[in-house]
């Protein structure tokens, strides 16, 4: 088991994704939760209600920034104006770390607002490594990149997604956010064994774990973030905890968002595994 | 360093995939469309030469997942931003308009805040001459303005007490700065009253054609809309352009049939209300 990450980034405990529907509850009740993750794009290009609440919340809780449109795998040039906005927001909320997904979201100036897979080839790996390094230099901190849920693979791929991620992390020196629900969804969609997927991940680079619900359509799975974490995903979480040790863990719930206390209870279920580790390590 | 040939291959593959999954008629039509075929001819002949199948899904099914999600996601955004426009048009006609809009105005931004910036104008062209077009367009303009003021920059409002301290003889040459979270809308019908009626009743009668003036603004973190008179609308417009207060008042109120002392009282009430609504943020002397 790896017990620390290479940047000594802290184990923040159990957090939840900050969603607009809970703003008032949070600033009125200041609920017991270890930290919040924000969707970066919801707080840039706006100076209204979202930032008003975020400023208050950031004074009381650690904040992690997680984005969806960095498009690190895109063939388009890096958007430094966007990176600048991310950097400003990170300074404003004293973000503990910031990241996005291993994917592309648009090309030729157009944005599909989805997390599209790249072909897992030497060429796209080299391309992405260069871009990650450039972004990290600009942001002056490691990027924390997440494995996406994917629904297709390209024939041109010459390595597995997990091999691609491991090499990307090592060669660009970035950190990883391991989304265990995405591992489950991707493996279901590509007929893979999720436990085998977990094997090559460099755990000393994993600084955060995501948990979420998904929708199983029988023929495939969609990463819908609309419900409780399934038992199969909890099994993967236990495995990652075993390999990695206690790591900052976050519950994402974006559709049919329930009351805040439901989120608290759901993410609190992760304590079972964290406590087991504490006992085992004692 | 990535070679330019390799970068070109990646770009071609990404452009192909985006063309396929954003095609308005779905992934199957997207693969067959000239745009995608021009980028990757091999995919049109044998899709599985580019995208693999899984045990349960074909390559086309798998692309279809992304294609379905593209429209679902963006239609959901538009429906959330234009709920009353949707009611006016009906769900089906609204969705058709949104799909046509997205085809014509695909997103070029990393955030979704400006996705629908041209939707009211698009709707005006699309619905020209159709029944209910006037109301739908006016409601869409109000709903777009609500989105814009929600995200507009913050500015500290000017207190009315501050305005009251300014000597009467200096008012005429002073200039007021309005909050950036304000939009002025000259409409073709009483769309604001229609929206208000819909909030209390399920159905409301479509208003007749007549000029209507609405301001949309943010105050205490919420977006508000208010119908104003022609004179108030004109005055706010001129103040917003930086006119001195005296000239702006004369220009906007010169046709009002009220005694000067009544006009003074009215202006005082207007500025008090606008100050309370957070519309006024700065006052300065002649430059």
Give the topology.
The complex is a heterodimer of chains A (282) and B (287).
Chain A (H helix, E strand, L loop, with lengths): L13 E4 L5 H7 L5 E5 L9 H12 L2 E4 L13 H14 L4 E4 L2 E4 L2 E7 L5 H18 L3 E4 L14 H12 L2 E5 H10 L4 H5 L7 E7 L2 E2 L4 E2 L8 H14 L3 E5 L7 H9 L2 H11 L1
Parallel strand pairs in A: 1-2, 1-12, 2-3, 3-4, 4-7, 7-8, 8-9, 9-12
Antiparallel strand pairs in A: 5-6, 10-11
Helix pairs in contact in A: 1-2, 4-5, 6-8
Chain B lengths: L3 H18 L5 H6 L1 H6 L1 H5 L13 H23 L1 H7 L1 H14 L14 H9 L5 H19 L8 H5 L3 H4 L3 E4 L3 E8 L1 H10 L8 E11 L2 E7 L1 H11 L4 H9 L6 H17 L3 E5 L3
Antiparallel strand pairs in B: 1-5, 2-3, 3-4
Helix pairs in contact in B: 5-7, 6-7, 6-9, 8-9, 13-14
- How would you sum up the global shape of chain A? globular
What is the terminal separation of chain A in angstroms? 14 Å
| Total number of strands of chain B | 5
The rounded distance between the terminal residues' Cα atoms of chain B is 55 Å
Low-confidence parts of chain B:
none
Give the second-level CATH assignment, the architecture of the largest domain in chain B: Alpha-Beta Complex
CATH architecture of chain A: Alpha-Beta Barrel
């Amino acid at each position: 088991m790896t017990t620390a990450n290479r940047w000594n980034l802290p184990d923040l405990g159990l957090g939840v994704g900050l969603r607009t529907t809970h703003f008032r509850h949070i600033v009125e009740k200041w609920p017991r939760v270890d930290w919040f993750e924000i969707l970066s794009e919801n707080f840039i290009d706006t100076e209204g209600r979202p930032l008003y609440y975020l400023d208050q919340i950031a004074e009381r809780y650690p904040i992690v920034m997680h984005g969806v449109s960095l498009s690190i795998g895109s063939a388009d040039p890096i958007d430094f104006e966007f990176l600048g906005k991310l950097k400003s927001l990170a300074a404003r909320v004293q973000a503990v770390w910031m990241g996005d997904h291993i994917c592309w979201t648009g090309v030729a100036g157009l944005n599909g607002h989805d997390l599209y897979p790249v072909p897992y080839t030497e060429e796209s790996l080299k391309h992405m490594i260069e871009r990650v390094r450039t972004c990290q230099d600009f942001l002056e901190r490691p990027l924390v990149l997440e494995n996406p849920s994917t629904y297709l693979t390209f024939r041109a791929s010459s390595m597995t997604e997990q091999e691609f991620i491991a090499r990307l992390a090592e060669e660009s020196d970035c950190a990883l956010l391991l989304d265990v629900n995405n591992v489950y969804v991707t493996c279901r969609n590509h007929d893979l064994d999720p436990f085998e997927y977990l094997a090559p991940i460099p755990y000393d680079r994993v600084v955060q774990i995501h948990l979420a619900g998904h929708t199983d359509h029988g023929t495939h799975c969609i990463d819908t973030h609309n419900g409780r974490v399934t038992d199969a995903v909890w099994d993967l979480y236990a495995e990652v905890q075993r390999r990695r040790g206690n790591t900052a863990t976050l519950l994402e719930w974006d559709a049919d968002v329930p009351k805040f206390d439901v989120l608290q209870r759901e993410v609190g279920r992760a304590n079972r595994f964290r406590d087991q580790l504490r006992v085992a390590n004692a | 360093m990535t070679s330019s040939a390799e970068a070109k291959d990646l770009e071609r593959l990404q452009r192909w995939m985006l063309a396929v999954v954003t095609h308005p008629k779905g992934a199957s039509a997207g693969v067959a469309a000239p745009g995608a075929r021009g980028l990757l001819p091999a995919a049109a002949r044998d899709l599985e030469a580019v995208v693999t199948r899984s045990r349960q899904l074909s390559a086309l099914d798998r692309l279809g997942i992304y294609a379905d999600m593209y429209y679902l996601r963006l239609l959901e955004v538009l429906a959330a931003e234009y709920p009353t426009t949707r009611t006016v048009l009906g769900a089906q006609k609204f969705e058709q308009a949104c799909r046509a809009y997205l085809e014509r105005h695909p997103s070029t931004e990393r955030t979704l805040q400006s996705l629908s910036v041209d939707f009211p104008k698009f709707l005006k062209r699309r619905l020209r001459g159709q029944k209910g077009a006037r109301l739908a367009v006016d409601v869409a303009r109000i709903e777009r303005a609500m989105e814009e003021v929600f995200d507009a920059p913050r500015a500290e409002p000017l207190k009315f007490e501050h305005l009251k301290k300014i000597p009467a003889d200096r008012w005429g040459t002073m200039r007021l700065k309005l909050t950036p979270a304000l939009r002025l809308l000259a409409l073709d019908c009483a769309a604001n009253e229609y929206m208000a009626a819909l909030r209390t009743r399920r159905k409301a009668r479509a208003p007749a054609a007549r000029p209507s003036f609405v301001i949309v603004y943010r105050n205490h973190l919420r977006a508000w809309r208010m119908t104003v008179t022609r004179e108030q609308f004109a005055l706010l417009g001129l103040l917003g352009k930086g006119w001195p207060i005296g000239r702006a008042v004369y220009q906007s109120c010169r046709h009002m049939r009220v005694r000067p002392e009544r006009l003074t009282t009215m202006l005082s009430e207007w500025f008090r209300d606008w100050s309370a609504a957070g519309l006024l943020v700065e006052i300065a002397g002649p430059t």
